[in-house]
Amino acid sequence: MQALAAFTRARLGTPSQSPFGSAVVETATGRLVVRRLNAVRQENDPSSHAEVRTMRAACKRLGRPSLAGHTLYTTCEPCPMCMAMALWAGVDRVVFGATIDDAARHCAQIHVPSVELTRRSDMDCVVSGPVARAECVALFEEPRMAAAMALWKKSRRNPPAGTPGLAPRKPKGP
Ligand SMILES: [Zn+2]
User: Fold this and answer.
1) 124 CA distance to ligand 1 middle (Å)
2) Partners of 72 in beta bridges
3) What angle do CA 49, 159, 107 make, to 5 degrees?
4) pLDDT tens digits for 70-105?
5) CB burial class (10 A; 0-12, 13-18, 19+) of residue 110?
6) How far is the CA of 38 from the centre of ligand 1 (A)?
7) Cis omega (within 30 of 0) for bond into 171
8) Measured distance CA(52)–CA(54) in Å, rounded
9) For a 10 Å CB count at each end of the chain, is N or C smaller?
């Protein structure tokens, strides 16, 4: 996890910066298969979370749709989309750094713990975390990242007129 946090930190200040990094590793040997960052903005794809990109790339590299025998590391607890994909992919174990609550201090989150998805599924997957939480939380708090995330948060709430696909957020409730 320290290596993944360092990989993610090394890209802060670059156009691909993100506090969300992920890696797929062979469980038995610890061999790194692939690692990726979140690229939602670069790819204009709301599903381009670090974990989704990493698992897709790992499956392509391995030439099969299963990641059995592999562990998914991620700098932040997986969202329900990513955790569901980890379950469908059959990863042995998910290890996360920062928690969903940690991330929610910086950006919108869906507050369903990854262990809850595992518990409600028919698949077996060990979820471990938080691990190296301080290093992973620091990725969100790094000044360049915090400034970028504050801008993104603002642009989601108040998108410039005519921005396609970014409707102003409607207040919840009746
Ligand atoms: Zn996700």
Assistant:
1) 19
2) 24, 94
3) 40
4) 999 999 999 999 999 999 999 999 999 999 999 999
5) exposed
6) 9
7) no
8) 5
9) C
